[in-house]
Design a protein that fits this description.
With 431 residues, this protein is α/β, with parallel strands linked by helices. The protein has 3 domains: 3-48, Transferase, Pyrimidine Nucleoside Phosphorylase, Chain A, domain 3 (Up-down Bundle), CATH 1.20.970; 78-156 and 187-324, Nucleoside phosphorylase/phosphoribosyltransferase catalytic domain (Pyrimidine Nucleoside Phosphorylase, Chain A, domain 2, 3-Layer(aba) Sandwich), CATH 3.40.1030.10; 331-417, Pyrimidine nucleoside phosphorylase-like, C-terminal domain (Aldehyde Oxidoreductase, domain 3), CATH 3.90.1170.30. It has helices spanning 3-11, 18-29, 35-48, 52-63, 91-101, 120-125, 136-146, 159-169, 177-190, 211-227, 249-260, 266-282, 289-302, 304-315, 350-360, 403-413, and strands at 78-83, 105-110, 148-152, 195-202, 231-238, 246-247, 333-338, 343-348, 376-379, 386-387, 392-398, 414-417, 426-430. The longest helix is centred in the middle third of the chain and has 17 residues, at 211-227. 54% of the residues are buried. Bound molecules: uracil.
Length: 431
């Protein structure tokens, strides 16, 4: 097989065979094909796309480029969730303990944030002592013992995706649906869960800006999962505004703790419960959606989910005492941003609000950037709220970095109009 022939075939709009895709991935992982040829292959794919079979072969080839985690020693159905990335998305921090408190086995490998989107691993690292890197045997044992572990991705899961993603980043080929779907699914399939719920974000702050694109991505990922023998569901949820009120690592842990005490913001709770219902059903722990919801609500409200969160943090070396005073996880210096005029908030560009948090130091522009775990934004207003000039729009928790830029990004992200607007949060379910 020759890479030039495969590039030509894709350039001319033909579908590739399983063998051809395996050849590309295998040879590239071994360093036998140079970046410039894979760049041409990616660009040909970007313009001519891939059909469902090709995207599945690509996902499976990338899964098989490294280790797959074998969770079969853990009794019961193992569940996992994945978000395509958003602003203020701290659902995993709440959903994992919540599901584990109800008997599910939540074995999760998470990522770090990049650009305007946050990552669960950074958020957990804002808890002093919390270890995100643990041996695979210990990861499995922890899920057996307490029903939950949330760790960083182990070194050799889907190495082909790691290499390809870095190349896509610098060749303008990230936003291509078959490449995104196979990239996400290669890692999910390698992580070993039986049932996976994908939270596909739609809106300004997400990869997918329209519901149509998001649905296409969701359907393809569900199809790849099915062809790989897994139970996969996708839920399309809105990212027209940040999820919840708090953005930034320590701040998001703070809001997750409030939510685990039954005092979470409505949108964050709704997304968490919707995904939770699906995974409880997939794990055969609830007979129907209504029962699943009432089980989830009961655990959030009676403290079982919070206790499970404490168990998780303790098991991974975190300082549980610090969680009693979550305000210690955030920067002491505050800057208030005021509402500039009367009206109703009609838009909150989540992308720009994510960028504002990044400028304060909460996120990284490049993979190598160091982040500040205690800075970020607490939004006091959300879409649909009536506001008056001079109200506090947001409190910035800062450390002498990017304050003016963050303020102006935030103010430009907000539209104030005359009429109350409502946005739809849970848009569609695809299974
Ligand atoms: N997240 C991934 O893991 N891969 C992509 O291609 C895009 C988002």
């Amino acid at each position: 097989m020759h890479i030039v022939d495969i590039i030509t075939k894709k350039r001319d709009g033909h579908a590739l065979t399983k063998q051809e895709i395996e050849y590309v991935i295998d040879s590239y992982t071994k360093g036998e094909i140079p970046d410039y040829q894979i760049s041409a292959f990616l660009m040909a794919t970007y313009f001519n796309q891939m059909n469902d079979e090709e995207a599945t072969y690509l996902a499976l080839a990338m899964r098989d480029s490294g280790d797959s985690i074998d969770l079969s020693d853990i009794k019961g159905i193992k569940v996992d969730k994945h978000s395509t990335g958003g602003v203020g998305d701290k659902v995993t921090l709440i959903l994992g303990p919540l599901l584990a408190s109800l008997g599910a086995k939540f074995a999760k490998m998470s990522g770090r944030g990049l650009g305007h989107t946050g990552g669960t691993i950074d958020k957990l690292e804002s808890i002093p002592g919390y270890k995100v890197e643990i041996k695979v045997e210990d990861f499995i044992k922890q899920v057996q013992d307490i029903g939950i572990a949330v760790v960083g991705q182990s070194g050799d899961v889907a190495p082909a995706d790691k290499k390809l993603y870095a190349l896509r980043d610098v060749t303008a080929t990230v936003d291509c649906i078959p490449l995104i779907a196979s990239s996400i699914m290669s890692k999910k399939l390698a992580s070993g869960a039986d049932a996976i719920c994908l939270d596909v974000k739609v809106g300004h702050g997400a990869f997918m800006k329209t519901e149509e694109e998001a649905e296409k991505l969701a359907k393809l990922m569900v199809e790849i999962g099915k062809l790989a023998g897994k139970k996969v569901t996708a839920i399309l949820t809105g990212m027209d505004e940040p999820l919840g009120h708090k953005i930034g690592n320590g701040l998001e842990v703070y809001e997750a703790i409030e939510t685990l005490h039954g005092k979470g913001p409505k949108d964050l709770v709704e997304v968490t419960l919707t995904i939770g219902e699906q995974l409880l059903l997939d794990a055969n722990l609830a007979a129907n959606q209504k029962e699943a919801r009432s089980m989830l609500e009961a655990s959030l409200n009676d403290g079982r989910a919070y206790q499970k969160f404490l168990e998780l943090v303790k098991a991974q070396g975190g300082d549980v005492d610090k969680l009693k005073h979550p305000e210690d996880l955030i920067a002491k210096e505050k800057v208030e941003v005021l509402v500039p005029k009367d009206g109703f908030i009609t838009e909150m560009n989540a992308l720009d609000i994510g960028k504002a948090a990044m400028r304060l130091g909460a996120g990284r522009e490049t993979k190598e950037d160091q982040i500040l775990l205690d800075v970020g934004i607490d939004l006091h207003k959300k879409i649909g709220d009536q506001v008056h000039k001079g109200d506090i729009l947001a409190t910035l928790y800062v450390r002498n970095k990017g304050i003016d830029e963050a303020k102006s990004l935030l103010l430009n992200a907000i539209t104030i109009g005359h009429q109350k607007t409502e946005i739809k949060l849970i848009k569609k379910k695809i299974s």
